[in-house]
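stuck on this:

***
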Amino acid sequence: MKEGTTLFKILTLLFTGMLIPELALAEDLPILGLTGTERGIYCVLIFIIAYVFVATEEFTGLSKSKPVILAAGIIWASVAVMANQQGVDGYEIERAVMHNLEEYAALMLFLLVAISYVNAMTERNVFEALRSWLVRRNFGYRKLFWITGGITFFLSAIADNLTSALLVGAVVMAVGHGNVKFVTLGLLNLVLAANAGGAFSPFGDLTTLMVWQSGEVEFFEFFALFVPSVVNYLVPAFFMIRAVPDEQPEPIHEEEVALKRGAISVCILFLITIGLAVSFENFLHVPPFLGMMTGFSLLMLFYYFLNKDIHSRIILPKPVQDEPDNVDIFDAVKDAEWDTLLFFFGVVFAVGGLGYIGYLQLASHAMYGTLGDTGANVLVGLLSAIIDNIPVMFAVLNMGHEMDLYQWLLVTLTAGVGGSLLAIGSAAGVALMGQSKGMYTFFSHMRWTPVIFLGYIASIFAHYLING
């Protein structure tokens, strides 16, 4: 009853704020304070409609970037009209737009380098060789459950959770053919592991990356979330393992996949690039994307020498198989997740436009003013199960609400692992539903939501005990 009353208060405050513009005013932010106008409410509806298309991407086939970019354009056109009617100088509007562009550009360049490195490692057979090794070991179902979960957990701390889940998901599908129960639980296990593993690393999820680049949490401070992330994964996995068949899968015979020339070197360069990003931020006080771009130049130079066919044992091992005469590093850039990168552009500008109108200040009053920091940050995680955690976290960062390190780590944790509550709550879950051919579904995931929620609460409690 108390939860229902609190939710009613939040909804009432939000509704009232749409009718009373003064609630959205904030002295420290250059906002219009026009949340109660027809055009302001119209902008919210545009964003909601766009997000409905994002949520139904699997059924409509419409890429998620398209509706949000359109929504961003409409919202900012409306913002410009409202600002002109209020007599706001055109320079101020341009400054607000350029502020959003600056935030997007820094994150986009950072992500572009990270994704390009992952694509380069894929092209050099790093992930395919790992998959082949796992398949050929013929582990039992229960042992494979823990191995694939563990690999996904740690891999997602370096690569993104989508790439990690899809990579190891191929292993689960390969060894579990004919055993629907194992595939269902195995893929669900990967979703939990990918989301939990990405929560304690600045590189693990776009939300952690945003928090790091905003300066709210330093690079090494994220690792205080390691134990809570482990708890978040292990609690539901402990219950799920009992349902995994205690059997041995049929032996699978496939040829060993060899690493291509320079594969290990690419992995080492990726670690060096991460070190550069951290060093640029911590020691030189330069945005970390510049360190990533510097590291990317090392990869480009490496591919130049790769194409020159240098066979130094220190830099390039001798070829182990036939390869194309020329390997273009820009193929790794071309194959980047452009839909995701452009989706993020739409989110940054759409949410930024709503914030300029005054809706983020309104949401801050409604959530943090009513529930307090802890209650609001726990709610952020629950919202992430329904709404993509990218716009949720971007909104939190732009609300201007001041929190201490403990609370910033809490919201980072909840936004990262909250998506595990539902299959549609994370990119990993949506992708594996499509890959599983009907074996891992929304409802098969939802059957385990109670124990996943138990892990969600347990991870918050662990964070309180360790970092509180």
Remarks:
- The radius of gyration is 23 Å.
- The CA atoms of residues 37 and 52 lie 23 Å apart.
- Residues 90-123 form the longest helix (34 residues).
